[in-house]
Amino acid sequence: MNDYRLSDEELAELRAVHRRVRDIREAYRINAVILLGQGRGVKDIADALLLDPETVRSYFKRYQKGGLDELLRMSYVGSEALLDSTQLRELDAHLQSTLYQTAADVARYVEQRWDVRYTSSGMNALLHRLGYVYKKPTLLPGKHQPVEVQEAFVSKYQDFKDKKSERT
Description:
By secondary structure, the chain is mostly helical. Among the domains are: about 10-70; about 85-130, no CATH class. About 65% of the residues lie in helices and about 0% in strands. Helix 6 (about 105-115) packs across helix 7. The longest helix has 21 residues, at about 145-165. The radius of gyration is 31 Å and the shape is elongated.
């Protein structure tokens, strides 16, 4: 059984950093190390934080190895784009001239154009990397027609109704 206990100074430093972090992933890592440092069991901490016990142990090992910097370092960098730089420039130019309602519509265009499949969330991430954002359209009231146009429509409509009633 490993001894995960930490000194009071280390626990105080972890608590101070925990109060300052805004990323929930960092907070969970610090929580796990604090709880282990207080002498609580790995399984209990894993159950409480909804983590795997091995993840809790790895957080503590990272803290021991490199301190807070190592504990808070995020290793995930994402995946490469499925389109090359030429295709991305062409897609960007196409999006400048064509309006799509959803990321799924853009994904369908990309699949038809380059035979590359994206999920809606994957295309959404790609569009964000290209600098696009979704903005909900605002409703604007329609503009009314001049009185002469309205009267012409009413008379045409009245003629239409009169002719229709003659047929029935």
